[in-house]
Structures
1.
Amino acid sequence: MLTAAHAYKNIHSHVSGILGNAFSLVVYLSSKTLKSKLTNWYLINQSVLDLLVSVFLMCTTLTVSESYVGTGIAAELHCR
């Protein structure tokens, strides 16, 4: 069963994703030479998307409770 303790155990991966993507954005956006190539703009875009996903998943992980999972066949399939 999915518990709050399980949700809090995975917070470190979300925090490292947020910090890593924020750091890469700072590096790419602070250098004029890195902003001049199209390939680097793809990397900037990917960092922004990863940052948003990390924030979204951290917020949803923090709000998960046992009542969210529920009971029945869907809960059994979800917990496997």
Note: The longest helix spans residues 38-62.
2.
Amino acid sequence: MNTKDDIPESSNGITPNYVRVGNTLYHPTYTPKTGVTWYLKWFGTVITITGLTCRSMDIFVPYDLLLSLTGTISWLFVGILWNDRSLIVLNTVCSTILLSGVIRALTWGEIGI
């Protein structure tokens, strides 16, 4: 059984809050509500939703690729800053797929720069 003595102390000397469920201690999820990651995650969310909306309504094609790529790269940086492997893997794969689409669109002249 986990007791108060079993709770690890963080590297900065502050003991994080734990939630006890039965005999097990869980560290609650922490999402920052300020700072650069807060702005970066909401920027990425809004841009990704805008890109998906363009794609689903068949407007501004293929600029939806650029918007979605920008959003997934933003979320990739958030994942790196949070050290969240699932965000890193998901957004690395998405960014790679979208980047290949952007390169294809540039090669075929679908995006004029």
Note: The helical segments are 36-56, 63-82, 85-107.
